[in-house]
Amino acid sequence: MQLKLMSMACAAAFAFGAGAAGAQTVVKLGHVGPLTGNIAQLGKDNEAGARMAIDELNAKKLKIGGQEVKFELLSEDDAADPKQGTAAAQKLVDAKVNGVIGHLNSGTTIPASRIYSEAGIPQISPSSTAPKYTQQGFKTAYRVVANDGQLGGALGRYAVTELKARTIAVIDDRTAYGQGVADEFAKAVKAAGGQVSGREYTNDKATDFSAILTKLKGKKPDLVFFGGMNAAAGPMLRQMKQLGMQVKYMGGDGICTGDMPQLAGDGMADGQVICAEAGGVEGEQLKVMEDFRTRFKSKFNMDVLLYAPYVYDATMTMVAAMQKADSTDPKKYLPVLAKIKYEGVTGTISFDSKGDIRNGALTLYTFKGGKREAMRVVR
């Protein structure tokens, strides 16, 4: 009996020692984006950015609150659909995640943000640009890119003052993002002395735009602006060429992707398309971003498509707040996140009182020879 008790004591001591030596706190971070549907390529780009950050963080074996932490990525598909977005948000809340990186689209981010707010879970969107997201008064909502007011405004002013367009047609896909950026663009065009000669609408699943383009062609625009995503912009450009509409074409970050030349095919002429990405690096930061792109391609065997660096930075910023607060508890690190200043691959990240990034940059791009080409960074 005594021998048995001694054996049990030794086993218990061994188990305790092994547990203590290998003690880890599992920190669950949620990511949400469209992993299926017509912009799944963008969602997967975002997811890869999150995965890269998680893997690098785990390799560092960080200690928070006196214990080594292991980060676990819980990735959900919202298919760019608001209803699926709220379902994904609730699933992450039920899983008791410590924070959320996402969503990609404004149309899914906005309804999901209420669910995270009610649960007290910090959320950093790497790509949602609708102003409403941070105007709801939620203390849990942040973003690391400039909003539509900045993006649409910059494009509208550029169209009139630099491209000298006077008669401009505007199309949007009726999503929170597409309509929002088109509204801001139209507002800036009028303020700069330009004229919106026609305003048409489609939806984010459409592929045939011949009816609205024919209608707009009759108004003889100098330029067409599209508020929407690349999956629609590519076919739209091809159909514009078929109709003989060889005019300048502008859009926001939704069309500012490296695969736009492939999506548009022979519908895109060199220098015809001008777009803006809600974010921008310049000077010495260009080398940091290039290093990230090289590491990303080496890890995933694919090029950065659009927002992977911003997802990476959003993840790293959230964890930096946990480290500074020495806690993974959302209640404890959220106040630190609100005041954080983090040097990321996309630049300095800090937030204003609403959760918007301070001094948000924009990069204007065009396409030449099948490649995206940066024109300038504006703030």
Automatic annotation (TrEMBL):
<dbReference type="InterPro" id="IPR028081">
    <property type="entry name" value="Leu-bd"/>
</dbReference>
<protein>
    <submittedName>
        <fullName>Branched-chain amino acid transport system substrate-binding protein</fullName>
    </submittedName>
</protein>
<comment type="similarity">
    <text>Belongs to the leucine-binding protein family.</text>
</comment>
<dbReference type="InterPro" id="IPR000709">
    <property type="entry name" value="Leu_Ile_Val-bd"/>
</dbReference>
<dbReference type="GO" id="GO:0006865">
    <property type="term" value="P:amino acid transport"/>
</dbReference>
<feature type="domain" description="Leucine-binding protein">
    <location>
        <begin position="27"/>
        <end position="370"/>
    </location>
</feature>
<dbReference type="Pfam" id="PF13458">
    <property type="entry name" value="Peripla_BP_6"/>
</dbReference>
<keyword id="KW-0732">Signal</keyword>
<keyword id="KW-0813">Transport</keyword>
<dbReference type="InterPro" id="IPR028082">
    <property type="entry name" value="Peripla_BP_I"/>
</dbReference>
<feature type="signal peptide">
    <location>
        <begin position="1"/>
        <end position="20"/>
    </location>
</feature>
<keyword id="KW-0029">Amino-acid transport</keyword>
